[in-house]
Structure prediction request, 596 residues.
Amino acid sequence: MGGCDLITESPSRPLPLSPLCLGMGGFPVHLHQVLFIIISTCHRQQQVLTKRSCSGVHLIEILKLDIDWTILKHPHFFHPHPSSCMLTTSMLPLRMLGLLMLMFSLCENPEAVTLFQSTYGAALESTYYEMQCDVDDVAPIHNLTLRWYKNNETIKTDYFTNITKRPVSESSNLTVSLNRGEKEAQFRCEAQLDFGGHASQPPVTSNVYTLSAHYAPVLKNKTEDVYLSEGEYAILNCGAEGDPAPGFRWSRDGVNLMDRTNELNISTATSAIYNCTATNYRGSTTKQIRVHVENPTPVPSTPESCPIVLIPAEIVVRFGDPTSATCNASTKDLTLMGWEATKGSKATNERVITWTVEKVDSWDEQPLCYINVKEMQCKKSLNIILYKTPDNVLVSAMDPGPMVEGREYRLNCFITNVAPLEKLKLIWYRGDETMLSRVFSSTTNTPTNVSFDLEVTPNRADNRAHFRCAAELHLGPNGPALVPTVTSSPYEAVVHYAPVFNGSNSEEEVNVISGDNVTLDCSADGNPHPEITWKSSAALNVMVTTRGRQKSIIVTEATSTNAGSYVCVARNEVGIVVKTVKLVVKGINIDLVQNT
Prediction:
């Protein structure tokens, strides 16, 4: 055999045809293709360049692989026969062919495929957002196919035109928009080296990214009428949904309730108007539910001619305190008179009878005086007002602090176990100044909890201001001489505000005679305390000093080179202000020097 012949024995088994992607980048080559390349290359070399060795470098030049990895030039990869360009099976066993395959199997599957949302913030309903898929270290990139999936459905396919054979990283972007009907969608991307047919590599799949459309709460209906029998149990449903899931607040006849869920349980139904407000960071909405109690028990009327006089006609008593009232009959024809009450019931045939209890401890107490005259009975109810001052009046911030000047915040006043609501008045104070007050129209007579919000837009004068809430029970002329009042502990507001320079905020001009010393001071007020810095040209006779929260520039023996603008900057986390001081250096007055 002459020239560059490859001597092989017929293999007992067919050579594998699947490509090898060994992580070195490039393109796939089958084993039989490697043998063909070696044979055909050696023949072409002999025809053109007689007895020239078949080195790995020559193979690269002929095949124009355009790569420079040093492993391909390693001397142990090729050992041509010294007298000719002949390769034999003894010189090139199958394990050496494996090394040759390493030279040509130059593809690399992606090291990683990562999906993330590139637009900052939550995905809002009907708003466009960007998602990005990063593919790391893949080769050859022009054989890469990248597919986007939404809920397992292909929505976009990307191809790449870069012809480099080295491993590179690439990205693909997708613009998405969701509506509330979709609730949420799952996105993923898939990167695959596609060589056609069986030579394609298995795809590498990214993480799954779940995206949901955030929207303000919505109601199925804004109003609802509920008809119940007196005392019937019922469940009221707000029926609001949103993303994120909203929080709920209920009120009855304008009085805030403690319930914070989508449903409200009513153990004993009475006619009332309930409001449910559903809120998330996207907004809020309110539903009104009108509860109608049918066929209420009629209240017996008192005949105008009933000869009963109650002294006093109205009693105001603190729950748990003693009380008494006298019933007088103005007729002599009575056969019996008495009191009907939860406690202290009694009867007599006299014309005067007194109801007395040592402790009023029933909220349902409604004393009633009656007389029997011949075959007729008449009655009068004692108007009794039971009251209870709150257990606690607490003030807290509804929004995270500290406050920032110019932004709106809410303070909440929460009152526990107070009665009756129709006599309650709540007042907000800033220091000694009345800010807001509220009264209630509810006829609820038993202790309940209520809350009252104050919206404030603070300024710097409100820093360290004390806000407090007072609960007063205005019980009328028969009540205590001093209005029962419970006041919260003061809430001290911490307000952050941007710096303001002490003194003038506008540009200043400072004049100095050449050779004199001059000091430029700068200080500012802000919360948090601002950082003060000076910006000026460096000079040997210019020095910056700090005294307390004031920073100064001291110019010693000023010259014309010190003239110019000196900029003072005050900054904190809320804002930044800048003030310029113009330094003017004037020459020495010669006449003045000579006269001295």
About this structure: The longest strand covers residues 283-294. Residues 31-48 form the longest helix (18 residues). The chain has six domains: 6-104, 112-213, 217-294, 308-380, 392-493, 499-590.
